[in-house]
Design goal:
mainly beta, 82 residues, SH3 type barrels, globular, 1 helix, three-stranded antiparallel sheet, 6 strands
Length: 82
């Protein structure tokens, strides 16, 4: 995953929510473009969560992106399909 791919999703008009999937199985929903920020180097992203907390992720640990999501609970473990 590259910062350019994340940036394209953030700047898409109209914005479409997406889910960031991590290597350890966690998932974080980006429901609004203002809920996503990046470090100056572009290696880290910060996702604002509904409870006003934040999670910082190294892009090296981001396993993928899922588009077309419904609002869910950020940081929750998702069942993997076999």
């Amino acid at each position: 995953m590259t910062i350019q791919e994340i940036q394209r999703l953030k700047e898409e008009k109209p914005f479409k929510p997406f889910r960031v999937l991590t290597a350890d199985g966690r998932a974080y929903d980006v429901l609004h473009p203002e809920c996503l920020a990046q470090s100056p180097s572009g290696r880290l992203i910060v996702i604002g969560l509904p409870d006003d907390s934040m999670v910082t992720l190294d892009l090296l640990l981001v396993a993928g992106i899922r588009r077309g999501i419904k609002a869910g609970r950020n940081g929750s473990k998702r069942k993997r399909r076999s």
